[in-house]
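Tutorial handout. Part one gives the primary structure; part two gives the three-dimensional structure as tokens.
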Amino acid sequence: MKQTMLSALYMGQNKVDVSQVPVPEVGPHDVLIRNTYSSICGTDVAVYTKGPNTGHRISIGGEFGHEAVSRIAAIGGETAGFQVGQRVYPYPLFAKNDPRRAGTIGGFSEYILIPEAKINHALYPVPDEIDDRTACLTEPFTVGCRAARRAMPQSGENAVVFGSGTIGIAAAIALKWFGAEKVMICDLSDFRLSIAGQLGFETCNTGSESFTEKASAYFGSAYALTGPTADIDIFIDAAGNTAILDLFMQAGKIESRFVSVAVNNAVRQLDLLHLTYAQKSIIGSGGYTPEDVADVFSIMKSGRWNISSIITHEFPLSEIETAIRTASDTEHALNVVIKFGA
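Part two.
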């Protein structure tokens, strides 16, 4: 009798079915992994609450999820470099040998088949120093790490991150890791900001506090084309609010940089003459690279931050719809994970 597994299948807006499906067959060059934890991404929330074409390329009736930590369950006879039971991080861009599947590798299924598996390519061994709950945050942390790297931080610089979700907090941590002196995290959720504060970051609720006053008091003063401003070298937008770019254009000091990592398809007009005279930069950041995986593992191993503290809720796969709805509640949740059975 063919072995089966539980898999969460996306069935359209506000609908996920957890069904028994066949466990994939392992070919000679393949690796089968069993998920331990999977984190819920903002794109998973978007496609669930808003319907198809609002997140990753998730098809009706298809599996989804892409932020996982797993253990190797079976190895093809011609596959080298892996051991059954080994903990691994499935790298979404290459896990299915198809970058278009980066958001749908099967993080919300019990098992994932990794075809033509190569070590440190589709699967990265997870260092022993990193616990499972922390390791399942590797993928969003690589996105945040990439955004911090794209900002080209220099030792002693100051930065502000807008958005205290997983990627925003990851970007703030990476900025500190790369040498930033002072980092502030801004959001509208006091709940999420309280978690960021416990990680050691200055925070600002831009809905109830004056960003200008708080930033100037924390960072000190510098000069913008418009006059005195807060001494901030780096602005990272991990929230996607159009007002954040406006703030940078108005209040960013001379030679400051703006990095956009949030999903935001708004078409904007820019004052290029202002950018020229102020020598400011606007930089895009999307995805991640293998060097980001290495840096994230180093950050997690260091123990400088209690990274798993951003996980506020944990659900079994059978309650994935409740988990996704919980993840959408920014006033009461930050990162939400699915825990798989032993």
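Part three, for discussion. The chain has a mean pLDDT of 95. The chain is about 30% helix and 25% strand.
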